[in-house]
Amino acid sequence: MERLYSICGLLSSVVFLALWVAAAIFDPDWALGKLSLSDLGSCGIASAEICFNMGCALSGVFGIIFAVGIIGRKDMFRIVGILAMCCSILVICIGIVDLGYGAPHRYVATIYGLFATACMIASIYTDWKIGMKRISIFTLAMLLLCAIMMFTQTFEVFEPIAISCVMIWTASQAIKFLMMDKNIPSMSDC
Contact at 8 Å (CB) between 108 and 90? Predict the structure, then answer.
């Protein structure tokens, strides 16, 4: 069952990124670094809106399943799992409360960003504690990149980089758990 949770973590990232690209293809006016990702969810082109908002919904559902798997692991992973669960619920909300809603969308997206940052910070600690220092350093490097971009670039440049970092982090965590599960016959034996 642990493998299923991790596979859902991978799917969370892959599905979102694939549907983001599909939405961008359907919207000829959208350009990376010129418009926000959320513009794809309310651009007036039905196929682009459906792809982007469906990407948020599916990513969130797969993320919830992945988070359940993280919560079910050792105690120190629970906080990461709880934060990942919050992120997953918020990403579903981003797809429902699209940019057309104005301020409510921006609040949900901002809260998502804060939870994603907290989740990544918590994982740096837990990964370091279990001896996975490389993945901790990798996560820290992604967070530092996002911080630099946040202060030096426009939102439209920063946002896709930050979201890409979150998707890469999610996939790396899923791969980490898949690798751990190769060596652990059952989590109930831990």
Answer: yes
